[in-house]
Amino acid sequence: MTDNKLDDSLAVVILAAGQGTRMKSALPKVLHRIGGRPLIGHVLDTARDLGPAHVIVVVRHERDQVADAVLGVSPEVVVVDQDEIPGTGRAVEVALDRLPDFAGDVLVLSGDVPLLDADTLGAFLRGHRGLAAAATLMSAVLEDPTGYGRVIRDADGGVDRIVEQKDASDAEAATREINAGVYVFQAAALRTQLARLTTDNAQGEKYLTDVIGLLRRDALAVAASVAPDVSLTLGVNDRAQLAEAGRILNARTVRRWQLEGVTIQDPATTWIDVTATLAPDVTVLPNTHILRATVVAAGAVIGPDTSLVDCEVGEGATVRRTDATLAVIGPRATVGPFAHLRPGTQLAEGGKIGTFVETKNAIIGEGSKVPHLSYIGDTTIGRGVNLGAGAITANYDDVAKHRTEIGDEVHSGSHNVFVAPVRIGDGAKTGAGAVIRKDVPPGALALSVAPQRNVEGWVENHRQGTGAADAAARARSAQEADDVAQEEQG
Ligand code: UD1
Ligand code: CA
After folding, report:
1. Nearest residue to 370 (alpha-carbon basis) of 418, 402, 326
2. Options 3.20.110.20, 2.160.10.10, 3.40.50.11930, 1.10.3720.10; which CATH number does 261-446 get?
3. Residue limits of the MobA-like NTP transferase domain (predicted)?
């Protein structure tokens, strides 16, 4: 991280007005997400780390959606509307109109270049200031430069101009050094050249890139800083690049947690949002997604095949093959395999939510267990409880949701239905197959199934000629033969 102190002579302009046509999406491009955050959110975060005096975001396409997203995370940012004149040059021009007296350095970032970090940009800025150039651009040398503007150098190897792919001759297009879309300009020099831009090019836009050539025509110094790592400058223009940027960011996040002491068995199938937090000695097994504001405490084992969204997992807990959202899993609790924890699930220390169990708004006390085949919703369970296999809380009567309250040390028989609202007192027990419609007092045994009645001979009388009747007849003869033998002996 770069130091966070205010840099009075730095303004950051973030371009986010473009339509993002190549995404073919109803959602504005800069709001597509990687690592759990919109593209523009990553850029805003990086900008903030540089401590600039001003941050301006330029919007136009779906301006309300983009402005809301920006101001939602960075209320201090100034949002500026681009008019109908298209192009990155025009976008910077309208931004600078908001800073008529600013005389420092203007760092231009693109809302669709999400992977640049503050360390790289800090070094870029120091390089620019050290050279006292009118502008410095960031370039990268790519195997495949398709789609990017090319950096054209003069005979001495200095930057001469940038040519957009659509305007490039074959020779220019063959250049593999590309413009990353990140620049720093002296404000005054930038203002002068922006006023000279025309839309006389293949796309009919005011290109910011033309400022570079214009500065050189005025014999002003322009430097290029080649990015140390080409993956930093990846621009997202289509869904393939979105996935690629997401993969690079994830690899970076996974590595960061590995260096913090987290065991991550299979980085390729582990996805961790930038907003999640993991403690040392957490183990993450393959095919696991740790998303949004999820926090995992030391020693917990997550996965395989698990997805946690906005969850809190306590120390030493185990969560296997589970899908959980807005759930709290206590220390040393165990969850899964094949569990579905929905919002409002709170499993206390040492508790268990087992196989094929779905929970929602369920508060489950210390050491309590819901081990098999259950639905527990709108329920409070005390401590030391064991619910038998197949427990169902019938929380919905077609009109409203009702709560089930189960006290401490309750043990329920298999296949119970708790018809809410209903209350089971401390230490109570319920029989197998019970349908609990009335409150059970503390310490009571609740039975709701009628005593069993066997109608002897029913199958042989009513199902003659079936396999069942034959089997019953054979069993009856064997029993009769046994009885005769016993009588003879006795
Ligand atoms: C741009 C550069 C190109 C560079 C590439 C790097 C120009 C003319 N070209 O091309 O040299 O290699 O970025 O990623 O600058 N935007 C506005 N207003 C507009 C148009 C665009 O704010 O009128 C914003 C977009 O929302 C986007 C950024 O500017 O965040 C870049 O625009 P985009 O259309 O993606 O430019 P590229 O074709 O990628
Ligand atoms: Ca782009």
Report:
1. 418
2. 2.160.10.10
3. 12-136
